[in-house]
Amino acid sequence: MRNKLIVLLIFVAGLGIGFAASDAYQVSVNGHPSKIQVEKDKETLLVPITLPAAGENDQFTVTLHRDDTAKKVDVKIESPKLKLRGATDCYYCTGNGMCANDYPPGSGRNYSNLTDGGCNGTGRCYHCSGTGKL
Ligand SMILES: [Zn+2]
Ligand SMILES: [Zn+2]
């Protein structure tokens, strides 16, 4: 009886995943797959992106590439600041490149199992773009 219940649960979970994947767009941020959920408003896709305001003035260039055939949205977030990269280990992620806000680290989800905005659901440390170096 117990085995049957487990099998049934897996089957239902599998159906859920299959349904979501057929209709949902896969988002990638700076080349990293993201857990971001895209909403559709008629023909427009709404992509929730988090941008960190660390200083008084921050500048970002956000580029969206939507591919309806592949059902994906590639997001590119560029900041002039992030190009200043040295050989110092990133102290936000202790140099491993994984988002420290995530649970578990690098999963792209927070403690409540929701998409983590800090890393835009990519699981990559946004301070060093997942390189581990600042
Ligand atoms: Zn994160
Ligand atoms: Zn880092």
Write the topology of this structure.
Blueprint: H1 2-23, E1 26-29, E2 32-34, E3 39-41, E4 44-46, E5 61-67, E6 72-78
Parallel strand pairs: 1-6
Antiparallel strand pairs: 1-2, 3-4, 5-6
Bound molecules: zinc ion (2 copies).
Residues 99, 101-102, 108, 116, 118-119, 123 line the site of one zinc ion.
Describe it.
The protein is α+β, with helices and mostly antiparallel strands and 134 residues long. The protein has 1 helix and 6 strands. The protein has one helix spanning 2-23, and strands at residues 26-29, 32-34, 39-41, 44-46, 61-67, 72-78. The strands form 2 sheets. It has a 4-stranded mixed beta sheet with strand order 2-1-6-5, with no helix packed on it. Residues 90, 92-93, 97, 125, 127-128, 132 line the site of one zinc ion. One zinc ion (ZN) binds next to loops.
The pLDDT mean sits at 83
What is the strand content? 15-25%
> Which term fits the overall shape?
globular
Strands, total number? 6
Give a brief outline of the structure.
This protein is α+β, with helices and mostly antiparallel strands and 134 residues long. It has one helix and six strands, in the order H-E-E-E-E-E-E. It has one helix at residues 2-23; strands at 26-29, 32-34, 39-41, 44-46, 61-67, 72-78.
